[in-house]
Specification:
The chain is mainly α. It has helices at about 25-50, 55-60, 65-70, 85-95, 105-130, 130-135, 140-155, 160-165, 175-185, 190-210, 215-230, 260-280, 295-310, 320-325, 335-350, 350-355, 360-370, 375-380, 385-405, 405-425, 490-505, 525-540, 550-555, 560-565, and strands spanning about 80, 315, 430-435, 440, 480-485, 510-515, 540-545, 570, 580, 585. Strand 5 (about 480-485), helix 21 and strand 6 (about 510-515) form a beta-alpha-beta unit.
Length: about 625
């Protein structure tokens, strides 16, 4: 059998260029320019969400995109930043007690660099620990709630800009920004409102009628022209702060800010990874390799770590710009390199032009981009699966709105952990019976009246008839159980309790536990199985193990208890090897269901290292 392919992250730089054809070069260059027309204005708009000068959004389109292109596995993912990440950054910087002064103060920019580098470090540590699959277990309901709270908070925060009010807030939370939005209605500028309405109408109209056109770029260009030649600034329309020409400078993180920013960096790291993986999978072509979560941890983490030294917003994959690249025919991450070059050209040569950009125009771009995060259809869809998921989404949304987005992310993660533990905390054992084709799972039935129920699931196999029946698991006081899956700390206790209950209900004198579903075991699981053996022995029942895989057997032999089982002949190769009351439990027949081998067949009856010995009299 051929060895499996190594992870794509270990195949060298620029994995999406492997086997690249020059015929695709023209398509990728055009796709990069098309995506850049969306990425650049959106990134600058997202910088305003983070309460940062717009050039820091532009800088996010440079190094992070190139780093992801060198390491990432998605051909079409556009790695800049998102409204969710920008909102979390605003909250993080506002909450940092060492920050004061203007939005472009040296302390604030160094705090941004520290935050972004921390995000990168956290993601790279998660990659070293191979936590990609674990992190992405954050539930869809949690993400739905976080996105909704972000969308509402950001949308409300744009109202003062759209009205031309002087007071704006960023990162202070939903409730303070609602108050600021209400106060903004007493400070309305008519020309700014007109510009906002036209910008919003153009964004929505172009998006619906001509979806292939870069609506944000067209609207931003229109706002700049209106400012430069329409005289709207003389009528009260505010412009963005002057943008310095040139490339970003190197900024060193400030270690003193690390303790304050670490919790926020962890939340941002989780969201950046989850958003990026979700978008990468959404824009993946069916012929492309599957997205490797550990490789994405490496790519997204490295993008933030490297970009952090130029004080960029933490990197994440955005859906709108990635979808543009996909529709334009992106065939490799060369698209991101082209987009990054476009951002460099804008910073070098178009900075004086960008100085004419109205704040209201950027506010309109942000509003349209973030309102899509509040998707009522997603909440409605959750009700079709599990009402508990709907309540998690609603609770996450409310916590994010009332207590802040960082608290919302933390609440969502904790509730997801609760769901995972709840799902794991289920008995993993089922009753086997001897039927015409050998040992098979018996249908669940209610337990007989008066049977002990402590710690056992609601639906359990029923009372088991005595010898002679071919429909049940028992005969001659024999009970046969099989593990459905692996045992962990979370599910071993309910599994052991259910096993003991079934033995008592069947008045079994011999219990055979088929464990072929396990190939790994922890000391906690071994201790619980040993306690089960002692409890069964006190009730006059003898425990046998069968289907012990070689890998599991090697680990179990570290336990004195398992050694005793082997010495006493209680580790057997098949269920039918067990003698009950001095006689064979069943006529020779098919072996119990085993673990499938890579070729698709069951494990042979005589597993290496297994013992076949009659029970001592």
């Amino acid at each position: 059998m051929a060895a499996p392919d190594p992870p794509r992250a270990l195949r060298g730089l620029f994995p999406t260029l492997q086997g690249y054809r020059l015929a695709s070069l023209r398509t990728d260059v055009l796709a990069g320019l098309t995506a850049g027309a969306v990425v650049v204005p959106q990134a600058m708009a997202y910088a305003t969400i983070a309460d940062l000068p717009v050039q820091y959004g532009l800088y996010t389109c440079m190094l992070p995109m190139v780093v992801y292109a060198a390491l990432g596995g998605s051909r079409a993912l556009s790695m800049s930043t998102t409204s969710t990440i920008a909102t979390l950054v605003a909250t993080s910087l506002v909450g940092l007690s060492t920050i004061s002064g203007g939005g472009d103060s040296e302390a604030r920019i160094r705090a941004l660099a520290t935050l972004t580098v921390l995000v990168g470090v956290i993601l790279l540590v998660a990659r070293a620990l191979r936590l990609g699959s674990l992190v992405q277990n954050i539930s869809h309901a949690t993400l739905t709630g976080i996105k909704a709270s972000v969308g509402l908070t950001v949308a409300v925060g744009q109202v003062p800009k759209l009205l031309g009010a002087r007071e704006t807030l960023h990162g202070h939370g939903f409730v303070p920004e609602v108050r600021a939005a209400v106060r903004a209605f007493s400070d309305v500028d008519g020309t700014t409102v007109l510009l906002s309405v036209v910008s919003l109408a153009a964004l929505v109209g172009i998006g619906r009628l001509w979806p292939r056109l870069p609506a944000p770029l067209l609207v931003v260009a229109g706002g700049i022209l209106a400012s430069a030649f329409g005289g709207i600034t003389e009528r009260g329309v505010s412009l963005v702060s002057p943008i310095p020409a040139g490339l970003p400078a190197i900024v060193l993180p400030r270690l003193g800010d690390v303790p304050h920013l670490l919790p926020a960096a962890a939340a941002i790291a989780i969201m950046a990874f989850l958003e990026s993986v979700a978008v990468a999978r959404e824009v993946r072509n069916r012929k492309d390799p599957r997205i490797d979560p550990d490789q994405e941890l490496l790519a997204v983490g490295a993008a933030s770590l490297v970009g952090g030294f130029t004080a960029v917003i933490p990197a994440a994959g955005g859906f709108s710009q990635s979808a543009v690249a996909q529709r334009a025919g992106a065939r490799s991450q060369l698209v991101s390199v082209v987009t990054a070059l476009l951002a460099v050209l804008v910073a070098l040569f178009l900075a004086p032009v960008l100085d004419h950009m109205p704040e209201a125009t950027l506010g309109a771009v942000v509003l349209v981009a973030t309102l899509g995060l509040v998707d009522v259809r997603e909440f409605r869809a959750l009700t079709r699966f599990d009402m508990s998921e709907l309540w998690i989404a609603v609770a996450t949304t409310l916590v994010g709105l009332l207590s802040g987005l960082l608290a919302g992310v933390a609440a969502g993660v904790l509730m997801t952990l609760f769901i995972v533990l709840r799902d794991l905390d289920r008995p993993q054992v089922e009753v086997l019976r001897h039927g015409p084709d050998g040992w098979e799972a018996a249908p669940d039935q209610p337990l007989p009246a008066g049977a002990p129920t402590a710690g056992v699931a609601q639906s359990t196999p029923g009372a088991l008839p005595g010898p002679g029946s071919t429909d049940t698991s028992t005969g001659a006081d024999l009970l046969v159980l099989r593990l459905r899956g692996m045992l962990y700390t979370a599910n071993v206790r309910p599994t052991v309790e259910r096993t003991a209950q079934l033995a008592r209900a069947a008045s079994a004198r011999t219990l055979v536990l088929e464990v072929s579903a396990m190939d790994w075991v922890s000391s906690t699981v071994v201790d619980e199985l040993e306690d089960l053996d002692d409890e069964l022995a006190e009730n006059g029942c003898r425990l046998y193990l069968t289907g012990v895989e070689p890998a599991l057997e090697q680990r179990l032999r570290a336990s004195d208890w398992f050694g005793e089982l082997e010495d006493q002949g209680r580790v057997v190769s098949t269920i039918d090897s067990v003698d009950v009351a001095g006689s064979s439990s069943r006529p020779p027949g098919p072996t119990p269901p085993g673990r499938p081998t890579p070729s698709g067949s069951d494990v042979p009856p005589e597993a290496p290292g297994a013992h076949s010995a009659p029970a001592p009299s």
